[in-house]
User: Fold this.
Amino acid sequence: MTQPIRFPEIQLYSGWGEPMRTECTIDALEIVQGEIPAGLEGTLYRNGADRQYPSGRDDDIFIDGEGMFHMFRFGGGQVDYKCRWVRTARFEVQEQARRGLFGRYRNTFTNDPSVQGVHMGTANTTAMFHAGHLYALKEDDLPYEVDPDTLATIGRTDMQGQIGATRFTAHPKVDPISNELLGFAYQARGDGTKDIAYYLFDKDGRKIKEIWFEMPYAACVHDFAVTDEWIVLPFFPLITDMDAVKAGGSFFQWHPDEETVIALVPRYGDAEGIRWFRGPATSAGHMMNAYRDGSKIHLDVCLYEGNCFPFFTTPSGETTEPVPPFLTRITMDLSRNDDAFGKRRLCNVPSEMPRTDDRYQGRPYRQGYMIVYRSADGSSSIGRIDQETGALDVWSPGPGDTVQECQFVPRTPDSPEGDGWLLVPVGRVSKVRSDLVILDAQNLAAGPVATVKLPVRVRSTFHGTWVPADTLKTGLYPYSLGAGTAQPS
Ligand code: V55
Ligand code: FE
Assistant:
């Protein structure tokens, strides 16, 4: 007999965080307010962590857990919902055993001896669509391909042998204008290594560039940013020490005495052209955007002046005080001959999970969208910052309710920047279910254009992507930059 399944009584698994463990299909969701805008035809894919089985530990963290992949398909004024587990190697051995077999976050030394050699990858972080294929990604493993209609898992892939690294980022950038895919791997030769591999793929999924180099320490490189000429890779001192990992410890440790280091890698060049910049210890999960302005590179990032993950302690085991993330512009001037970067706060309200109109990734832009934290009751809101005026336009779902990362969808393939909708998953926490809300991206405060009701809880999603209906068939985004866009000089 196997042990009874019982999750530990920890905050992570209480209330809204209770493991959901449910695959479901709901056609024609109820639209409880408004109407689905005409022209909104396509699919919102989202990925998040749930828990198939308890790990048998009480130190699980929210970024761990098996990937649960969600899809909202918009067509003819209706929305269909589906969610499915990503059937990773890890998922399948646990399914067979009917219990948890994997231990601490990314620590292979804490796994059940029976699963030695089975990858711990959860495929839980984002959805990527490129060159006609849909993927579920986790930064410590290769991509898993997923069927875009059924969400059935097709399998783990190195993209026809093109990814020689042991893994691939969960924050790739698919440029919806050029249809290029830009990505990288960190700790690319295995856990604890300092290797970075940068990859560039063309619109057909053929690798056209690959650059390998070393970061200063074995950092956690969760996200990156791009410009027309550069890849921006920030290294924050959340560092892997394999001796600690082998002893069953945490996969990352916070080093307040190490520097923040940023590498600018030539997007189409080679490792000789890399430029380095340095500053005091800070950290971040997520970048809003980057762009080039003459000799300056601006990186807009939700920056923590300290450790963004208090559950990763210092090497001596000290926990750090939580610090709020503020949208911050880091500026690197290529014409200067020192390696310091400048730093300026862009918004005084704490914010996370930043997004833009994806057509403007890597290009001068004006509109940024993010989750903002304005009240102390645990609720969250969606905000739009106008980078020209600094003004914040906010929609709040209601007391105690929460929002997840939003997705911008342009009204037409060539509409001006920011002319379109924001799709926002909302946790109706007191009702123990979710909504998907559609906002006019130019006027969030006006409230939803439509509210789509889910009779179930979408427990956790981190990131996702929007695929227009035609793009599912052609494999190409049909987008172009709208009129009046400023271009770099
Ligand atoms: C992050 C998220 C992760 C992870 C490592 O936000 C870092 C940062 C969702 O999973 O595994
Ligand atoms: Fe992320």
